[in-house]
Write a structure and sequence with these properties.
The protein is an alpha+beta fold. The chain has 5 helices and 10 strands. α2 crosses α3 (70-83) and α4 (128-144) crosses α5 (172-187). The radius of gyration is 16 Å and the shape is globular.
Length: 191
């Protein structure tokens, strides 16, 4: 069974530490090796709070709505009202020793009669190359768990209370390139 350590953001399966999909795709991240890492850290903390609160909403609970995340939660509730998804998985860690990586897809289930994989973002824009690679990694993990999505979406929640739902085509080439770079620098001891 996959073990996830939130403090270190480490996935372990059968005693083997696996890199995460987001770590593998870091080369496509907007702020990769940023000269202002504190901004990335603040955004990551806010994103984590938003994800946790959205999961509570999905489980029928009412999260604490701090002023920092209230607008994002309004956007998520609007999305749920407009699309009525039926989630089969919510923020569940997955890993595969054969693939050699792990991750936590945000949401998967059905929406409008389609089997979907949805990744929630809270930045100012959907960064399509990174999202496309990330969704391909999650798709591979979900297929190993016997869920075969036919449609892929980025759901951007905005602090103003609006959302953007955009269909994404997972890109095997981008994910494969990131995985190759990750494995190469890991093998050579670079970070």
């Amino acid at each position: 069974m996959i073990q996830f350590d939130e403090k270190t953001h480490t996935y372990t399966l059968d005693g083997v530490v696996l890199p995460s999909v987001t770590h593998i795709c870091r080369f496509l991240a907007y702020d990769y090796k940023s000269d202002r890492p504190w901004l990335a850290e603040a955004a990551a903390r806010r994103g984590t709070a938003i994800h946790e609160a959205c999961a509570l909403i999905d489980y029928g609970e009412e999260p604490e709505e701090t002023p920092e995340i209230a607008g994002y939660l309004t956007a998520y509730r609007r999305f749920l009202k407009d699309y009525s998804p039926e989630w089969q998985g919510i923020e569940r860690p997955l890993g595969d020793l054969f693939l050699g990586f792990a991750g936590t897809p945000d949401r998967w289930g059905t929406m409008g009669g389609e089997r979907v994989l949805v990744d929630i973002k809270s930045g100012s824009t959907l960064r399509m190359p990174a999202l496309s690679a990330q969704l391909l990694g999650y798709k591979a993990l979900l297929e190993g768990a016997a869920f075969h999505p036919s449609a892929f979406y980025g759901l951007r929640l905005d602090k103003s209370g609006v959302y953007e739902l955009r269909q994404v085509e997972p890109d095997f080439r981008l994910f494969s390139a990131c995985l190759t770079i990750h494995r190469t620098i890991t093998k050579r001891g670079y970070r």
